[in-house]
């Protein structure tokens, strides 16, 4: 591997040493609008690059540009212009009034940038200004609804990670690649105020340059950079109050209705007294039951409570006869504040640019004791060492406090708030938490107490800190070449503490207190080298990019736990004070990806567009003969608006028809050691009698995982056909796309037969899935006056998902969902009634009997086929 890396990188570094550089010119000038009014804040960039500046308050700018380059000048409210440098040192530009088109935007894609109108892949450009107007804890949460084909699902908890799907669910691992300034990272740790632009690459024509990492789509995030000009200091802040709905959100029954139902289905119930609710539930060391007021069994003087001596407690709970289902909802939710503060300082000169920012977010959840607190520090600088050499860095550091508990789980506090028995109060007569502990045995189930669940998390901790960034070097040489090397990565460290109180309110009296501590770190190291050639000659525009990339991921985790603590005080809760300790456990993983890639973009006469991409990925988790995959893509475009027969169509400013097809690999979710059978030791299981005498038992190893060296890439075949148009004097942007995505060789672990033992099953290639649909995006921009502009956007996405093939029997279940041929991923299935029989011997293994005589049992066929092999029986 190292030899191959050197073979790729040494020529690039040799190129860095060359002394033949393209001639550059310091170009200065002024940008004005109609009547020579200066245009401040206009973007002045070198076409086809990320290099650029902005105009000052007087419309003036200064930039170093190759003598054969072109300057792209753009400002909202004006028509953009492209001006050839042609060796000029002074260029003054007058922009005509108009509405800028989204198709003129410069989009960062595939290790370089292009104008959106020249892109032949499927790319959605997010309106960052609209994104920032939505109060949220991260840019990702605000992304929902901002781009066609992108679905973002949030569970509502502060700091909870978002589920992101680009063009639907196409496998068992659907997370897109998120790049922050070129480095894979977590956008949830980036404040929305720090984001300059977000692009979503959705098809092979746009995303295939990222190979296996981009098979589920790519989200390219570019953060703000310093610009030439004086010091600029900006402070942004917002406050937001979140107010939950009052009362139960479901039409749940009240206490009396519940009692009526119990009396009707179980007339002999001991929960009621003469068919009515009692006044009290009680439980003591040798007695328990229900009672009316005045009964000696519920004399308040008998009440005693000691969570450490549960056997001698005497609990009395007053029944809430007026209780409504979901009453506790108002107790566990409250109005909550979200506030955000951001301070940044930026500036620059002809030789250097800089930006420094600080951020603080306090997002209190409406569910009690849920919150996210995040601190951010971000800095980036760039320097022109000479006219042709640039260096720089992008760094972001964060610290996050975000206690986590299963708020929305099946047994979480929100679910229990609606299902909690309506006549059970939150507290007993002594002010301690009430529950099913008191009362007749077996009648109250074992429901928890939602208010206790959200209050007793004060000793939980979840702290994470880390950083993401890179340093880079760029060199222009031989007139049309730019070489770039970038080394960066991400580091994340976490500490998690979860303390479980004695849940004394439950029917069994609760378990011992338990403390679990988890700590670990994850690192990503990424080294990317590219060589870019760009040239315009005559009617031809050619750009060629070649490069290599190495990505290495490492994680290590440690978990330990203990039970039985003399006190719940936080400062006492260390594992050394646990009376019962469990054996600590740890794990460590690492994987590596090495890639070679190339891309060619060609345009003839600004009408005919071609994009070719190929990437070769090698991944360490696959077997020796399956490590490498080659993934090509081709994209074609025709700017029909530039044809002579369209010149008379004045309402069409720009129209492009495009299509792409390509293959991409997917490796996400696979265990780094998947190709190998691994072994482990366990103090309880891995002991063997070596000599067979019973006297020589020694500790050995047991198989932890079965390996599979034949597992290979999940291959995604993507077809995309669409068109982009700018209409009615640049007021309307329209994009319509049809896509089809076929996935061959889905990656997932398949459970081995029980005879294989308890070893974990490896990931294998198990089947095929198909997604197809339509993306539509429409934006209308209007201008009432020079200082009042507005835009309205609508996007629409449809998709149809179908599992095409799976191994016999053509389906498998995961929990309550089923994956079956001919149906969408993660479908819910019930049973099919196949007949009613009086004798079970008539049923199993026999054909379906439509005319079976009625009997005592109804048989439900889980397989839904003509032969009853897998069935359930329901008495009726």
Compact description:
This protein is mainly beta.
Question: Would you write up a description of this structure?
Answer:
With 876 residues, the protein is mainly beta. The strands form 12 sheets. It has an 18-stranded antiparallel beta sheet that branches. A hairpin with a 3-residue loop joins strand 30 and strand 31. The longest helix has 15 residues, at 2-16.
Fold topology:
Blueprint: H1 2-16, E1 24-32, E2 43-46, E3 52-54, E4 60-66, E5 70-74, E6 81-84, E7 90-94, E8 106-109, E9 112-115, E10 123-125, H2 128-132, E11 150-153, E12 163-166, E13 177-180, E14 183-184, E15 195-201, H3 204-207, E16 218-223, E17 229-242, H4 255-265, E18 280-283, E19 288-291, E20 315-318, H5 329-332, E21 336-348, E22 352-364, E23 371-384, E24 389-401, H6 413-419, H7 450-455, E25 461-477, E26 481-500, E27 514-537, E28 540-563, E29 580-581, E30 585-604, E31 608-619, E32 628-639, E33 652-666, E34 678-680, E35 687-689, E36 697-699, E37 702-705, E38 714-727, E39 732-744, E40 747-749, E41 763-765, E42 768-785, E43 788-805, E44 811-814, E45 817-820, E46 832-837, E47 857-861, E48 871-875
Parallel strand pairs: 1-7, 13-16
Antiparallel strand pairs: 1-4, 2-3, 2-5, 5-6, 8-9, 10-15, 11-12, 13-14, 15-16, 17-21, 18-19, 18-20, 21-22, 22-23, 23-24, 24-25, 25-26, 26-27, 27-28, 28-29, 28-30, 30-31, 31-32, 32-33, 33-38, 34-37, 35-36, 38-39, 39-42, 40-41, 42-43, 44-45, 46-47, 47-48
